[in-house]
Amino acid sequence: NVRQGIKPQDFKLPKRFEASLTAGPAAGAPVPPFEQLKADYYVAMGWDPVTGEPSAETLEKLSITA
Q1: 20 to 30 A Cα–Cα from 57, which one of 16, 24, 32, 64?
Q2: Which residue from 13, 56, 54 is spatially nearest to 37, judged by alpha carbons?
Q3: Could you tell me the CA-to-CA distances from 50 to 17, 31, 34, 39 in Å, in that order?
């Protein structure tokens, strides 16, 4: 994604994913804010949540040279 110029802010969910489910076991449960989930995901993967670039530590763990 970084090589192609895709940034974290380019990832959006469709509007229908913003509303709580109306049926099933999760009916009525609040939907967590996507932006926070996305930022948490990037941090867990070892990527910068603003730029989407992998951290130096992540590159080192994967034996990738920049």
Answers
A1: 32
A2: 13
A3: 22, 22, 14, 8
